[in-house]
Design brief:
- The chain is mostly helical.
- It contains 21 helices and no strands.
- α3 packs across α5, α9 packs antiparallel against α11 and α13 runs antiparallel to α16.
- The radius of gyration is 33 Å and the shape is elongated.
- The relative contact order is 0.09.
Length: 502
């Protein structure tokens, strides 16, 4: 008897060593792949490049303002430039040089905002909080640089409450550890550069955290999984996910299979209730039929047993593992839905910034025409029309924002992008409105107006610039309505409570 006991202990230790070795073998290449990522450009160059690309969006706008100021100034440009240049060329070159120098200096000053923490402090705080939760749930300790120590498998099993009898998966635990390691690298080592300026880094971090939390569904105890599943149920019920009813049905059945005593609100037809009662009756009958089997096996120990307990336990483990997989798939659908809405917000913001940059380049090219033609008074009047349209456009934007009640805590800089776009678009619309009003007499056969007569400071022209300056708000409003769909979808798929936010 003692010999058999020691043999069983040796086999158990050998199996545990094999599991530890397999886990270490699978993750031993992690330091090497991260070391490869570290090699390359210095971190300060990556940070400055990201800051420069973020500042380059406003480069045409700054160039336009600087060129106009130099053109109207008494000196007509920088004193370091050759004095034999004309007034127009001196103003253009001075504006370009000053803009380039100011952009490089400004990019240097805003380098802290090209990092994961500085680009979006609220989102970064949420990511670090979820990372800390994962670290506690996995039982991982970190180095001074934020990267995790190698954690033995037995330590993570103990921290997560891993139990083979409850259908926990060892491969899912490996998936959670790998995803957590990638999150640490992203937030601690690759925490600067263009990906954080554009918002792509935050989206990647959210996806990695969600993959780790989804994997833990197949690892942690049943009580924790059921509590989180009920939280997912509330989030799905409030959302507009496609096939919402099918997901809820799968989720409720999975919760009942894991814990029959779970308080799940089932809003199904009476047919489903009868089906549940029928399953309960069949389970009771199965237990009654299997009760005589152990007595028969004990009385006829030399014969082949009618039914062994091992296959039943194995079947229960497989069923629980299958149910955990269903819960993981449902969670994956929910988090993918929310991640897609975040991607929509970031994509809308980046597209709007690209529109601002292209519009700024076009505005500067149009500005160069009257400057090179040396139309001083026409350019002065056009500047007044531009400012008039800008002011009315900002007032219109203020009115729309004050009446808009559908805001989420973090829109990934979309509001700021809309605020930058309004002065640029409204100013151009104001000048365009003056051109339209001045061209109306030509449609009736009158003499065609020229630039000197069109761009003249008159009260009707200023009024036209103010009216047309308000029109870009209609374009921004339709754009805002599409983005509000993403915001509403994110808000509706949030569940009350503090279990695990998605």
């Amino acid at each position: 008897m003692t010999c058999n006991y020691f043999q069983e202990q040796l086999v158990t230790c050998a199996d545990r060593a094999d599991e530890e070795g397999a886990f270490k073998l699978k993750n031993c290449d992690s330091p090497s792949r991260f070391e490869k990522r570290r090699k390359g450009l210095p971190k300060w160059i990556i940070t400055y490049y990201g800051s420069l690309m973020g500042a380059a969006v406003a480069l045409p706008i700054v160039a336009s303002v600087g060129t106009v100021c130099f053109y109207f100034s008494p000196g007509s440009g920088l004193s370091v430039l050759p004095l034999h240049l004309s007034r127009s060329w001196n103003a253009l070159l001075s504006g370009i040089i000053l803009t380039v120098v100011a952009t490089f200096i400004f990019a240097l000053l805003r380098c802290p905002f090209a990092t994961a923490e500085g680009a979006n402090r609220y989102c970064y705080g949420q990511l670090k909080s979820r990372q800390s939760q994962l670290k506690v749930r996995l039982g991982i300790k970190e180095n001074m640089d934020g990267m995790p120590f190698f954690t033995p498998l037995c330590t993570m099993k103990q921290a997560t409450g891993w139990s083979k009898a409850e259908g926990s998966s060892l491969s899912a635990l490996r998936d959670a550890y790998t995803a957590y390691e990638d999150v640490c690298h992203l937030l601690c080592q690759a925490d600067s550069g263009l990906q954080w300026v554009t918002g792509a880094g935050y989206l990647n971090a959210w996806e990695l955290i969600h993959r780790a939390e989804e994997a833990l569904i197949e690892v942690e105890p049943v009580e924790t999984i059921v509590r989180e599943a009920m939280h997912d149920q509330q989030a799905i019920e409030n959302s507009s996910i496609k096939n919402c009813d099918g997901l809820l049905k799968k989720l409720k059945e999975a919760i009942k299979n894991l814990d029959a005593d779970a308080n799940v609100s089932v809003n199904e037809h009476q047919r489903d209730k009868n089906h549940a009662k029928l399953q309960q009756t069949q389970e009771q009958q199965r237990k009654l039929l299997t009760q005589p089997i152990p007595r028969h096996n004990n009385a006829h120990s030399d014969d082949i047993p009618l039914l062994s307990d091992t296959p039943t336990k194995s079947a229960d483990e497989k069923d629980k593992r299958r149910v955990r997989g269903v819960l993981r798939d449902v969670r994956h659908t929910l988090t993918t839905y929310r991640d897609s809405k975040r991607q929509g917000l970031v994509r809308a913001r980046n597209h709007l910034l690209m529109l601002i940059a292209l519009t700024g380049v076009t505005t500067y090219m149009l500005l160069c025409i009257p400057i090179l033609l040396d139309q001083y008074w026409a350019l002065l009047a056009a500047t007044a029309f531009y400012l008039t349209g800008t002011v009315t456009g900002l007032f219109g934007r203020l009115y729309h924002e004050s009446s808009n009640h559908c805001h989420i805590t973090d829109d990934y800089g979309l509001f700021t992008a809309r605020l930058i776009a309004i002065p640029l678009l409204s100013g151009l619309a104001g000048i365009g409105g003056v051109l339209v009003i001045s061209a109306l007499p030509a449609l009736s056969g009158n003499q065609n107006p020229n630039m000197s007569t069109t761009f003249t400071l008159t009260l009707p022209s200023l009024f036209a610039a103010a009216i047309f300056g308000f029109t870009p708000n209609l374009l921004i409003k339709s754009f805002q309505q599409r983005t509000q769909e993403y915001e509403s979808a994110l808000k509706s798929s949030e569940a009350s409570g503090t279990v695990v936010p998605h």
